């Protein structure tokens, strides 16, 4: 393979990979200089001139002419007068020789190795460029097509045929993909593993929800409305705290849109995830009340040292505050940054007649009492006010345990 064929084939391959000309020339020069170093031990006194467009290559060895008896005769950049005059008969001591080295002089094996090295360098460059391209897109929405569904992850292809990965943990539980589906997600992270870029997508990240709001709500995109914080239970529920620095703009109304037109598009993308949009405020009590929406809070006691908040509600508001599966109270806690404890507000009569669950610690195991308290049930009557089905749904207790709890509590009031 001569230089022209080698360079032209490499240039064509490089162009197909969208490699710019300066980079292509630099790679060619690096590889040829590596060949020179392998044969001559150094490339310091060599010039490498490449014209990739024409496929031209010129390698020139430059050496200074010294006397045949000179001590420097063995230096890499020196040549004896006798050897120099074999190149040009009229050379004199002190002049420089410019000797052209042909590619064939390196041997067929070296040339084939150079060809493989050039291809590998382009592939490595392509991986680096892909890594850099997606590293700049971290946190941004991309669209890709599903091409393979595996047990623990789904493989997708972008428009340029690059492989993207969405692990099961980054998929909304209700997501059901089929080959050929077009999927939107954010670039969650990009990592280089054994020289290969691994691009991870996510649909469960709060940032994905934030980007969807930017797409659907112009005021958010323009910065007129700021999203202060987002917390999610993907596919189930999310809470979004928003704030506007312009008093003329209602941030919640703008995000929801006329008859919910804006937020519906976001909800559909997130597999009908229930989204609560609330006004952000520095007033902690008011912020907690809004975070527990749709429940109406009667009173709040905050312990800023322990980062805990006790919330008191009327009996009919407790289940609303906790929400289906406990999602509402968990998300509210994460949104405000405090652990929220829900307590049922009792009337004077109930307080006189009711009994705190801790009074039954000799008959009911402590972990069972704690499980009931997690759902806002802290007295005997608050438990008895519910059905067995309610407790099964709201707690992780077994049916036999609940039957025993009812039996013990009823005995107290029968006495």
From TrEMBL:
Keywords: Cytoplasm, RNA-binding, Transcription, Transcription antitermination, Transcription regulation, Transcription termination. Gene3D superfamilies: 3.30.300.20, Nucleic acid-binding proteins (2.40.50.140), NusA, N-terminal domain (3.30.1480.10). CDD domains: KH-II_NusA_rpt1, KH-II_NusA_rpt2, S1_NusA. It comes from the Bacteria. It is found in: Cytoplasm. Pfam families: KH_NusA_1st, KH_NusA_2nd, NusA_N. Residues 139-204 form the S1 motif domain. Participates in both transcription termination and antitermination. NCBIfam families: NusA. Belongs to the NusA family. This is Transcription termination/antitermination protein NusA. It comes from Negadavirga shengliensis.
